[in-house]
Amino acid sequence: MGNQIKVRIAENSQAAANDVASEFARAIQCKPSLILGLATGGTPVEVYRKLVAMVQNGQVSFSDCTTFNLDEYVGLAPDHHQSYRHFMQSKLFDHVDVTAEKTHVPSGVAEDLYQECEDYEAAIRNEGGIDLQLLGIGENGHIAFNEPGSEVKGRTSVVDLTENTIAANARFFDTIDHVPRKAITMGIGTILEASKIVLMATGRNKATAVARALSGGPGADSPASYLQSGEDVTFVLDADASSELPDALIESAEFIF
Ligand code: PGA
After folding, report:
1. Contact 230, 5 (CB under 8 A)
2. Is 94 one of the catalytic residues?
3. Coil, strand, or helix at residue 237?
4. 84 and 69 in contact (C-beta within 8 Å)?
5. Pairing relation of β-strands 254-256 and 6-10?
């Protein structure tokens, strides 16, 4: 069993993004060669916007950092406008001083997807593991594309997306039929090996998943609940995402403004 998950609650999503961006910037300032684990989705967009501003005004530099993204859709080429590689380029990498070869996103169009998963794990291992991992959470409690029922010891692999996740992600595609059905994702076991994990969640639609992840013990119904066995895990929430937390967790949370 790990240490208790720390919870920080911000009054709104902007304040939550500020908090997460500042934590990442501080970590890079302390260790310029930081190995970062990065996430896609709507939640981290504002975090990346703030980090870009900090790089552009000289507060922080990604020049020695290495990055590993959590996941990628199977079948989308890196230049596809909905691929996660494209997301990372347009939201962060193209605007900061990171070295292109040091940014890693699994390839969803690798000829041998299973080899791609093995190679991805090996690349993380070769860098000595992830220092600081950013996560979002799905409405169904998924982390990366580890859907309910995923193995706690799972490694990077090819997975099927659930109907719930396909529906949630349809907002980024022309029609729901364009949403890929499979993805490559770091496994829960891979994620739990990061030295430090920051999960960010904003909005009422995440409140139930957040409350379940933090209470009731680790269980396969909520992949995020396995973070309870992590050594150094922090949830950064806005008020809406924290709105279903039990009183005891609210009382022990730190409030940020
Ligand atoms: P979102 O996705 O940030 O777009 O809500 C998070 C997730 O599904 O992990």
Report:
1. yes
2. no
3. strand
4. yes
5. parallel
Residue 117, domain member (yes or no):
yes
**pTM across the whole model:** 0.97
Residue 1 inside a domain? The answer is no
Residue 103 domain flag: yes
Distance, in Å, from the CA atom of 191 to the CA atom of 43, rounded to the nearest integer, reads 18
Three-class secondary structure of residue 75 per DSSP: coil
Q: What is the pLDDT of residues 75-127, one digit of tens each?
A: 999 999 999 999 999 999 999 999 999 999 999 999 999 999 999 999 999 99
Q: Which atom of ligand 1 is nearest to the CA of 169?
A: 4
Question: Which mutation among 38, 82, 137, 236 tests ligand 1's pocket best, with the greatest number of atoms within 8 A of CB?
Answer: 137
- How far is Cα 63 from Cα 57, in angstroms, rounded to an integer? 14
Residue 205's domain comprises 6-256
Q: Identify whether 155 is part of a domain.
A: yes
* Cα 24 to Cα 37: distance, rounded to the nearest angstrom: 11
How many domains is the chain partitioned into structurally? 1
CATH of the domain at 89: 3.40.50.1360
